[in-house]
Structures
1.
Amino acid sequence: MHNKAIKQYLECLKLSGIQDIFVKPPIQINKAELLKELEENYHTCTKCALHSGRNKFCYGNGNPDARLLIIGEGPGADEDRIGKVFVGRSGQLLTKMLSAINLSRDEVYITNIVKCRPPGNRNPLPEEKKACLPYLEEQISIIQPEFILMLGKVAAVTLLEIDQTLTAFRQQIYNFRGIKTYVSYHPSALLRNPSWKKLAWIDLQKLQKDYF
Ligand code: SF4
């Protein structure tokens, strides 16, 4: 409502005998506290079979006020042992990739499609992804990032609901729930095939151009 319209509305209220109105301040949420509380609530989750092999629940970590949310596939062995995402060799590579575009781990929030480790690092099954996705949806709506970077085909297929190759995914920037979204290689794929790093660099530069 414009100022003039608000003024007229208040005048009308005054004429009808209403002298005082109370304006409720907008609700401020503490994202860090809320995410911490939700992590504590969910860490004993048994909604899918992955809970049975779990050592540690890996909810996500980083900056709750991040402009960039990074989404991978699922925790690996190191993550399962420690309870944090992207802490192993893949995590170290991700840190370097971010640093190459002038971003630090403290500036971004990182999580996965599933929060418990699939045995032998296999892809999460459809029923496991379905059971776990509400936790990610909730994280997205709390963090409200400006940008999302999906790492690997599993994250992209699951969230964008398009079944195509990673090469095809990388050709486009997506609008995922109003958020500018990029798709690139998962760092573990880059560790297996270092020749793809130059392609990942092209993807990261697109993100960097929009972010800064
Ligand atoms: S993967 Fe997700 S849904 Fe399955 S047990 Fe772990 S937290 Fe629960």
Note: The chain has one domain: 61-211.
2.
Amino acid sequence: MSKQPPSYYLKTSRAFSPLYKYAWLLTVLIGIGGQLFPLLGLLVPFIMAALLATSLFKGKYWCGNYCPHGSFFDNLLKPLSRHLKVPQLFRAKAFIIFVLLFFMYNLAARFINVYDAMGTGEFYEKLGLIFASTYLMVLLVGGLLAVIINTRTWCHFCPMGTMQILMYKLGKALGLTNKTDKKVTLEQPDLCRSCGKCARVCPMQLTPHQNFSENYQFDDEQCIRCHICIESCPPAILSLANRVKEAPHRESI
Ligand code: SF4
Ligand code: SF4
């Protein structure tokens, strides 16, 4: 039997904040517990509001630092993941938009179904179950993809992630990100070895070293600010920084 070649992507651990280390408990509580106690699902709109508000100021920072599902993928499933390349389909704009529209259509159709129960004691339970079931679906589908492909496969097309990018664009247009948006930043360009390790450890399979902007920041809107590239860079020349000031003179790397 032919041996599978090692993956280009490296499975690397990173430091977790106490909040992010245990945020996965919320996923289990809502996704599984919500099937028995549907009112738990009513926590989800608050989580959605928090992540959308965060993205106005900090892009997809939520995904790498607070997201309960992200915590589930990173904390529990990483050891089991095959850590392979995420198929191009899951990164395609058309697919990402399709998933967002399908998600919204599905949610709207289910809301209409429970509308009849409005004003009855059952209404909030039925509403909660919609959100709890959605949470469970992400836990199951995202979890399966995390194991058979890569930990953050789901995050490439997650409807909440896409909505965060839209809010981020709005935040940038309104200037809300100016003081709060911290991006991966190349602090000492001359010391970059072009080793590509920042790309090999990136759970979103991005390529920071090839895409720094004029002021040496990584502007990719899919970046979840997870710090893994920063912690893994051999010469330790990356940081998460806000650099809305004049661009330094760019020298060749
Ligand atoms: S890991 Fe660091 S040294 Fe290597 S390419 Fe990325 S920024 Fe440059
Ligand atoms: S570029 Fe760095 S901070 Fe951004 S998602 Fe990839 S590893 Fe995380």
Note: Confidence is low (pLDDT under 50) at residues 246-253.
